[in-house]
């Protein structure tokens, strides 16, 4: 049985930004956005010296591996994203190079449209969804984790359906780094924005605070009775671990580290639970080889999913095709 602790993640109040940026060369490259620098009074591994996040916010992320910032994305934009997703699912707008993923419990039924698809991914180049990927305020916060050269690597809108009774709407506990063939992990951050109020009833995110301080663990498909959606990998051994549910309001955004163990529960309501998300990385990051590692299984899945869009390419080429420079200079990625 999964046990839950608390019911609302701390939402950090913002301090007024100070002038200038601090220079950081922790990974061997400078992340200076102005000539003016300030002395650092504390050492942080997971955020960069940037005046937008307060010391208390940085300390919270350092300890827990996530932070929720309220109301970054405007309501009217969220409704525009919602309508765009429905229009794509209904075939009124071409999906282009985006990929629609079918809910496994419904794929062999006569269900169509929004009811059938649990996700559209690779949305960074879409004229509507790119308003999220390139959102200035969102990127201001991303820069606190990546530095000024920001590459959008994976992007998606998630449409968690009402559970069919087969528990397939649940997303198993996992670490996002399992999906990524680029490093270093500390210069990668996820953004996940609630498109409506989310809680345990409609399958909010759950996290294991502090797990980002660990290592990338082996992942495999869970052996669930009614199957599991494509690329829904799981880390073993955490089923009985206490989890923190992240209750969020519409427009709230959680930023989290790629080694943080997280997942989401089933949607027990009759409506959909939507969220829009992107993973960003510093352009200075570099690609790694996954052959012979625990990540080899996801590489095969990525290539298989790409084939659905008619793309035949190796993993590095796939990342280059899927990504988009969101801010600053294009360097390695």
Low-confidence stretches are 1-8, 11-41
Helix fraction?
Answer: 10-25%
Number of helices: 6
- Please compute the radius of gyration using only Cα atoms: 19 Å
Annotation, overall tally of beta strands? 16
Largest sheet: 8 strands, antiparallel
Distance between the termini: 41 Å
- The sequence of SSEs as H and E is HEHEEHHEEEEEEEEEEEEHHE
Query: Overall mean pLDDT score?
Result: 83
Global outline: globular
Content-based structural category: alpha+beta
Instruction: State which percent range the strand residues make up.
Output: 15-25%
Describe this structure in words.
The protein is of the alpha+beta class and 333 residues long. Helices cover 18% and strands 21% of the residues. Strands 1, 2, 3, 4, 7, 12, 14 and 16 form an eight-stranded antiparallel beta sheet that branches. Strands 5-13-8-11 form a four-stranded antiparallel beta sheet, with no helix packed on it. The longest helix has 15 residues, at 75-89. It is globular. Residues 1-8 and 11-41 have low confidence and may be disordered.
């Amino acid at each position: 049985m999964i046990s839950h602790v608390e019911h609302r993640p701390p939402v950090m109040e913002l301090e007024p930004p100070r002038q200038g940026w601090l220079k950081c060369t922790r990974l061997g490259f400078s992340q200076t956005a102005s000539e003016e620098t300030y002395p650092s009074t504390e050492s942080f591994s997971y955020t960069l010296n940037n005046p937008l996040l307060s010391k208390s916010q940085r300390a919270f992320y350092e300890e827990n591996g996530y932070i929720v910032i309220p109301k970054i994305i405007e309501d009217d934009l969220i409704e525009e994203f919602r309508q765009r997703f429905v229009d794509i699912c209904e075939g009124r707008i071409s999906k282009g190079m985006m990929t629609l993923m079918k809910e496994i419990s419904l794929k062999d039924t006569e269900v169509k449209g929004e009811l059938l698809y649990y996700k559209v991914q690779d949305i960074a180049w879409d004229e509507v969804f790119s308003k999220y990927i390139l959102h200035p305020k969102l990127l201001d916060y991303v820069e606190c984790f990546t530095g000024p050269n920001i590459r959008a690597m994976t992007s998606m809108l998630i449409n968690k359906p009402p559970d069919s009774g087969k528990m397939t709407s649940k997303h198993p506990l996992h670490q996002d780094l399992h999906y990524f063939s680029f490093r270093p992990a500390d210069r990668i951050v996820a953004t996940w924005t609630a498109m409506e109020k989310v809680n345990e009833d409609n399958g909010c995110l759950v996290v294991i605070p502090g797990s980002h301080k660990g290592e990338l663990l082996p992942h495999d498909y869970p052996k669930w009775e009614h199957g599991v959606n494509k690329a829904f990998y799981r880390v073993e051994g955490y089923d009985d671990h206490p989890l923190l549910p992240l209750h969020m309001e519409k427009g709230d955004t959680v930023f989290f580290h790629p080694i943080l163990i997280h997942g989401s529960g089933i949607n027990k309501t009759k409506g959909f639970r939507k969220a829009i998300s992107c993973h960003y990385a510093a352009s200075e990051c570099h690609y790694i080889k996954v052959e012979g590692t625990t990540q080899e299984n996801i590489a095969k899945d990525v290539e298989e999913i790409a084939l659905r869009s008619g793309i035949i390419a190796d993993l590095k080429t796939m990342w280059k095709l899927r990504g988009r420079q969101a801010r600053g200079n294009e360097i390695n990625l």
